[in-house]
Please model this.
Amino acid sequence: MRVFSGQRAWLLQRFSALAILVLLVLGAFTLAGADGSAYERWHALATSTHGSVLIVAFFVSMGLHAWIGVRDVVLDYVHPLALRLPLLAVVAFVLVAVQIRVAMILMGAS
Amino acid sequence: MRLRIYRFDPDVDERPRMQDYDVALRHTDRMLLDVLVRLKEIDDSLSFRRSCREGVCGSDAMNINGRNGLACIQPVSELKEPVTLRPLPGFPVVRDLIVDMTQFFAHYHSIRPYVIDDRPMPERERLQSPEERERLNGLYECILCACCSAFCPSYWWNPDKFIGPAGLLQAWRFITDSRDTARAERLAYLDDVYRLYRCRTIMNCTEVCPKGLSPSHAIEQIRTALVKESS
Model:
């Protein structure tokens, strides 16, 4: 896909890293500012609208960042196409599974 | 001076070996190439490239004590013994210290290393302002010795697809040339997951360049230009 090649992938990786950092800081402040036990704070974060958006944005950014990073490592080290394609498919599957799992947790919490 | 030199003759040897030499230095032996040339008189089977003997042609690039450099500008006094000499890492060995640079030059040719200007020819030369000419400093001095590309792990991993620091430095030399009219096509050619973006900013290239150039800076300039000028 063109969006994941060359300059766009390079930019996407850097912007997603920045987004991860900002979202981590925001999440930490939100949790630190909330009342109750650790579980109650996390539950409040996951059930609030802004908290859900924050968590989804974090995992989407992490998924994109991880995909480009792992793909680059695979492109560097795994040269046989017969090995490379299944490996990339496994990585894509795991990353998509993580996104689905996050969505399920958030829907279950609300 | 004690030397350990990589020896491999594909017609005779099954595998490479390291051969030890002891050479009594003379007062005229200032640079490593002086020692190698005299060693050649002792053992004429030893093969290496050399030409200008003053750091201009880039022929005698080799791995000297684990670091790429030019034998002709490497002072003997700075070397720790035994001096271990190997061919440029990552390049196919033709014989002893001589490597096959076909792929390296194929990458160089791929970036079209000449000014492209399809405008009508002027009556006199195409002029550049001093500022425009200044942009070429630190780029045009590259002698294509391949010390940088042969010290770049990204180039070792994908030598057939990644253009490498030397080729990319040359690419930026023509992209930034005010007389060149193919800037957009040149940038579009480099916007590829392999050609440019295999660079991990390891910066071995800049660290090892015997001419003191900075291919990593040139690569950064290409990336910046791509961000600013891509549609």
